[in-house]
């Protein structure tokens, strides 16, 4: 395995780092302060569109897509390092048009979408003109087992009728969120993993209603947000089904591989940001006539944070390398491993940074509470830790199948 950045990746890394230093970091704090001062925070402030235009002009746009026709032509491994940089900022992913869930939705449309679907929805998403949502999780069932879904997408002639209730649908609060992907049961009599479909729907379709926005530890993550959405006899053309009825699970597996790499690398960027803040605090703050770094076990905490970040990064790079070489199905264990390791690692380091900042670490004077909230949430997003551990153990025990006794 060779994790050395290619010349192309090195060029993108340098340009992204420079753009963030010169364009994003000088304005992000003021942007967040202005947004949070508004009565209505579900808006796009002009600075975001200005930064997006600059990023697009600089060629720092859609970098997550490996197809040069649509994106930057970076491999999964090459983009992983870019995603780490963007994880240091709350707004960088949108500025570069590389934010979830739009990235996953664009990957789905690029890989599985019909020419008509690509023309209607993929093109404006690629241009950053609209945003999207992914509606899968349901409040009434344990959605860690996706076969539990109760929502339905029933084909009636030349239409498909959507009914059900979804929640934690990320991005539905954004004023430019115009389209969503609805995953639901189409044929309960088909084999278990051929029962579900993914269907495109416009948010202004009759019967689609955002019931409420959901806070995470009191944060609504404006202007993106996570919402509970009801679907009542929503009728869309049958041509809105992605790749055809019954292919929902197939599409989901294709969607989740690269997206999990992106999440995990952004988490590493978040952990790096927290460690940086921790070290600055430890070096500059004095208590009991000593710098904080010389109190208690703070040096051990800093050292362990550095080692844990390096370990996590190497495993994510390995998973990314495997996706590039053998595809997501060949990297199933590694992908699940990083989904457990990366958010837990980030959460632990951010928590240590909060502790090092004392009361300030619990306030919005520093970005740590927002980082902690995101890291904790990502231990559930894309599947809870327990599900991933179960898959890792299953794949590991398959190596010892000859020893297994029948139950």
From TrEMBL:
Belongs to the acyl-CoA dehydrogenase family. Transmembrane segments: none annotated. It comes from Venatoribacter cucullus. GO terms for biological process: fatty acid beta-oxidation using acyl-CoA dehydrogenase. Pfam families: Acyl-CoA_dh_1, Acyl-CoA_dh_M, Acyl-CoA_dh_N. Keywords: FAD, Flavoprotein, Oxidoreductase. Its cofactor is FAD. GO terms for cellular component: cytoplasm. Homodimer. InterPro entries: Acyl-CoA_dehydrogenase, Acyl-CoA_Oxase/DH_mid-dom, Acyl-CoA_Oxase/DH_mid-dom_sf, AcylCo_DH-like_C, AcylCo_DH/oxidase_C, AcylCoA_DH/ox_N, AcylCoA_DH/ox_N_sf, AcylCoA_DH/oxidase_NM_dom_sf. GO terms for molecular function: acyl-CoA dehydrogenase activity; flavin adenine dinucleotide binding. This is Acyl-CoA dehydrogenase.
